[in-house]
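REVIEWER CHECKLIST
Item 1: Sequence provided? yes
Item 2: Single chain? yes
Item 3: Sequence as submitted:
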Amino acid sequence: MTGRGRGRRTAGLFAPAAGSRPAVVAGLGNGVAISVLLLAGIAAGNAAAGAWAALGAYVTAFTNKGGPRGPRTRHLLVAAVVNAAMFWVGAGTISLVPLTGVVLAVLVFLASMGSAVHPVLERLGTMPATALLVAAGSTTAGVDMEYATLLVLTGGLWYAAATAVLTPPARLRDVLAHVAQPYRLIGRHLTALAPGSTTPPDAAGDPAHTPRTAQGAARPRSGAGPAPPNITVGTVHPDTTAALRRAEGATRELRGPRGDEHLADLTDSLVRHAATLADLTTALAATGPPPPAVRVPYATLTDAVGRQLSQLADVLTRRRQATDSVEGAPVPGLGRFEAACDRMRAEMPAGAHTYPEMARAGRQRRLLDRITATLAEARSEARTLALLAATPLSAPPARPVRLDRARLREAMTLRSGTFRHALRTTVVSTAVFALVHWTALPHGEWAVLAVLRVMRPQYAVTRERVAQRVIGNVVGGTCAAVLIAAVHEPAALSLILFVVITVGFTLRPVNYAFWVVFGTPLVLLIGDVSHPGSWLDAASRIAMTLVGTAAALVGSRLLWPSWEHPRLDTETAHARHACAAYLDTTLRSLGQAGPRRDTDPGPDVRHARTTAEKALAQAAATSRHAHREPGHDRAALDRAATTVDALTTLNLLVAALATHRTPHTPRIPALAAYTDHAGPALADASSEESPRHADALADALDVMSLHLEELHVRRHEELAAGRTGDTPARAAIREYGPVIELLQAIAAVVDDARARPQRATTAPWP
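Item 4: Structure as written out by the authors:
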């Protein structure tokens, strides 16, 4: 791997998580609620007591999984009591190391099984085991552990009460924060379409998420018709799809007990406008770069629309007044772009511009007209919703939680990935616990904590978290060592901790690596406040972290591993079939006569699209994980990644195709034949029928290309005769041209995916 590749991989470890922006505010509240205990300890003249109470709030904060305020507060109270109880157990059983190991094994196993046993265990996670280990590692310092246990309990109860008081009741603005995100992303994408702009990077540099350029038709045979254009869809960031799905999920709750039908109708409409804008932006990207004659006004207009979309998102998130940039003049630059297109059309008969350039400019003009019209509707609705942002939402009724014995029996088998993960984590953490106590390694509990923090069901995810934890511990531990060596006043350390905790919990939702950087000095400095040590303690804890992460990595590879690469062919085949169903459903919708529906493609198309996106996301995640696993077939993974890449492009092209549906679209020659064979050509990539479907697609494209070429010839004759009005030939080119070109690009992608058949296999562990 080159240095540049390693740099990208390391930078990817710190990439912000998608949709983490709204959680940052909650993280800030968590940090303040915990660190204020340190200030209380300073004010009371007992910084050590404040540190122990902050530790209790710290372990309780990690069980805060969100949700309605009432049920969440009850859970946090339970967590505070359980964590304090395990802290007391750890303090009382440390002289009996085997008993401590047994308690630890039980806690880790239950935490790893999680919701398979009971949802409460999933919310508690490994925090009870963490409290046990912290107590076991602190008894050697001569601390009154009964008093410390009471402080830990007090800190946990304080955190539960503080979050209940500080968290405002649910309001419509919480939903609008999710609705605003896709508008912000689409605005960036439109700005990136301007000539000379920088296209936003794809997700984490992952090849499975990098849309590519679809070029050429599927095996052009007769040479009839113009060559299809280069259709670049890489400007559409994959995060937009995820943001739209989160917005849909947030608005869906408004039709339940939390909201009312009026608010649900308003927000649903705004989300539909965002989906329409995303598809229109994809279609605009598919037209390619603007002709030179309109390049400057095109860039001005797309940049202006992008900025207004960002302003709309600001209105929804209360960063801008509802009256700003919502009412007023049309989008700046629209008139200049339309005037440039009109001049280009007037100059075309004199030979100043080519006919394809004029056609492309006209297509871009129509798409931008629709984008600005949709934006105008969205701005009006955003203003209405922004004024209703303070509307309270009632909490949903609490659902009864029961132990599902049938599901538990099904999970307690080696065929269950959850059970294997629980066994693996329990064995590794218990073995590391026994090792550090047998060898009397200082601060050995940190090795066990490292195991609990990094081990995940997938080896690839475990490997990524190992890298994040090692880097974060080295950076954060070094900073903590410097502070421990330089600052000896507990009050000063408490003030530093206030800043570290607040920043750490604020950045925790953004990326786990950021949390480790701040979380490491957080725990080290809390320990130094309660019982001062030397800077060498930080070095010892860094060493223990290296021991624990190494053990976790070895255990993930050797003990009942759950490999992703055996499932890759199956997941890829499933994604191909789901994308084929989406393509088929969209084509059949395209061929149906009826009124034009720009904003609502219909429930069947929406369902097929959502299913395809989920299947493709699963295949992409499996491909990403499989590339980081040992013993895989590199060639097979590359083929699967190429197929996922092609399917990503296909979905974007199909979304763009749906934006061109008109009442006259069904009249395109051979569209029915194309529809009958496109889906099967993709779904049956490895069957003997696939070549027959591919030949039928090529035949249908030949017919379409010949018809489009005849229309172009007729239009050239009309222009030569001075007929510059809206003739039937011009109208047909306007409606048929973009559809046929997209169908050519789709056929090329289908052929690309079909040319790499893969044998479906079944993973040894489902």
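Item 5: Key structural point noted by reviewer: The beta strands are 213-214, 231-232.
Item 6: Recommendation: ____
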